[in-house]
Amino acid sequence: DEIIECAKKAGIVDETDGERLYKKLLRIRSGRAKILVGNALADTPYDAAKTALLRAYGENIASALTLAAFAVGASKCCIAVFDGKKAPAFPQSIGNVPLMKINFRYPSMPLLNMQIRGWGGGEQIGVGALFALYYALSSHLPQTFVCLTVDGTAVLEPKNIFVPIGVTVSD
């Protein structure tokens, strides 16, 4: 209950579906998911922010996923990452959380949902929301930022950046 309450107070929104994290955790808890999956799959073109977050803050994300799985009563958790010729290399696990290397094409969200059903049922939470949960649990502060990928033909220097929530493109 403390983990879910912290997610509520922090105002965390899951980047994979726009659902408030505390509502998602309550819904998952009532459905008794067997597995909770941290989604690090880049599901839109030019999206590398999830990979960047996992590379830089993997231990924190794995810790938050473990706590979220405990809060909802999931018996297992893992982090889904891309596996393929162009995918970045990742270890087999981060802390005690295994990484499930998945070779999906775009769009990956429906395919990941089918895979989760094949594992016996469960839910997914974006690694951005998990990082925000870790931040909220450790600092007792609300989510005030997101990690975005800035890339494309009009961008001279592609990068992943942390921006305050509410910043416009013109800013």
Strand order of the largest sheet: 3-4-2-1-5
Helicity, as a percent range: 25-40%
The arrangement of helices and strands along the chain is HHEHEEEHEHEE
Question: Main sheet, how many strands, which sense, barrel?
Answer: 5 strands, mixed
Integer-rounded radius of gyration: 15 Å
What's the mean pLDDT score?
A: 85
Question: How many distinct helices?
Answer: 5
Quantity of strands, as a count = 7
* Shape assignment: globular
| N-to-C CA distance | 38 Å
The stretches of 5 or more residues where confidence is low (pLDDT under 50) are none
Pick out its properties.
7 strands; two-stranded antiparallel sheet; about 170 residues; 5 helices; alpha/beta; single chain; five-stranded mixed β-sheet
Verbal overview:
The structure is a single chain. By secondary structure, this protein is α/β, with parallel strands linked by helices. It is built from five helices and seven strands; from the N terminus they run H-H-E-H-E-E-E-H-E-H-E-E. The strands form two sheets. A five-stranded mixed sheet has the order 3-4-2-1-5, with helices on both faces. Strands 6-7 form a two-stranded antiparallel ribbon. A hairpin with an 8-residue loop joins strand 6 and strand 7. Helix 1 packs antiparallel against helix 2. The N and C termini lie far apart (38 Å). The model has no long low-confidence stretch (mean pLDDT 85).
Describe how the helices and strands are arranged.
Elements: H1 2-10, H2 21-31, E1 35-39, H3 49-72, E2 76-82, E3 93-94, E4 97-102, H4 109-118, E5 122-126, H5 127-139, E6 145-150, E7 159-164
Parallel strand pairs: 1-2, 1-5, 2-4
Antiparallel strand pairs: 3-4, 6-7
